[in-house]
Amino acid sequence: MASLLGVSLLARLAITADVMALTMYVVLDLDMSYVAAGGVAAALTAGVALGGPLLGRVIDRRGPRTVLFATCAAQAVFWLSVPMIPYGVLLGAAFAAGLLMVPAQAVTRQAIAAMTTEGQRRAAFALESVQGELSYMVGPPVVILCAAEASSGVMAWGIGAAIVAGGAGLALLDPPLRSGRESQAAAAGRPSRRDWLGPGMIAALVMSFGVTMLLSGTDLAIVAALEEEGQVSWAAVIVAVYGLSSVTGGLVYGRLSRPLPTWLPLGLLGLATLPAGLAGGWPWLCVAVACAGLLAAPALSAVADAVSRLAPAGVRGEATGLQSSALSAGFALGSPVVGGAIDLTSPGGGFAAAGLAGAAAALAGYLLSRRTPTRGRPPSAHSSPDAAPSAAEARPGT
């Protein structure tokens, strides 16, 4: 597990910074507007959202090594060519690169599900969520610093090299994505979507969308609130406090002796985000986001754990890819939705929009999970994301 998380961290550090790298290149090297940079970022994000389930299906059928090496090759070609292609070509190339993005997060989550028992899995997913927070805290700031010291084209090559190195490391590590019993079950045939893409899985996907929409919207609301107060220089400190608080919450959540309902951390995160809109000045905003941040990593961990439990082994790659698409869509829509709320009201309205989006996703997930059938299907196909594992299910790899 240490090797898996260590190697995947390299790839995820670069992947979380790829949008920032392209933005810096378009603005600084091509001397174009931030709107143009947003177009490239949107193309890459759309490709990632569409490519996740497709790559997941290939992983289910061919295994991770083939997909990892193929996507590494695609990323090498794209990032090497970034400084040499015009803007129009870059738009299409960014979409293609998103479709063939190295599935580091998806492979890591599948491997965690296969390598851990039910009793270990929550702690392992909590560590994976902490890894994600560290990636967002380190990756984009490093790109900004490097772009200030070197050309954006060289920085783009560095991002590509890190993505390729991390993906190749995962391919060489070749972690198991199914336990022995799961491999035997998968050999019997691939279950149809009707068997696993039910209300419980849809609930987990809705909550995945909601948590990233809340997180991306909160980042924008923090900047807007500080700008209104004339304290925008404190934005990096506030975001760092939020990230450190999330890491702390993730570590505490991983040590809980009993699981929480999947919707509960997200619902509490949404409610805890609302008071940040009332904070006046950066010290009180720092306190507000520190309290809310304690629930960020637990919310991410809970939905990842739910997807792993609800997806049969034979389709776990596709299910994890769908979750990656939901996460990407939430990040893409969070900023414009919250930005619209800020323009119509105030920065406090931005926090309200972000918090209510998370709370609404949690409520929708709760209501959908209550519709999950309780019999007539095997446990892996029908378990509610709110259901705690039974003693009979607590075996390696389930």
From TrEMBL:
This protein's record includes keyword Transmembrane helix: yes
Alphabetical list of InterPro entries matching this protein: MFS, MFS_trans_sf
Sequence segments annotated as region (Disordered): 371-398
Transmembrane segments: 32-55, 67-100, 154-173, 202-226, 232-253, 260-276, 348-368
Keyword terms: Membrane, Transmembrane, Transmembrane helix
Name the record gives this protein: MFS transporter
Organism of this sequence: Streptomyces daqingensis
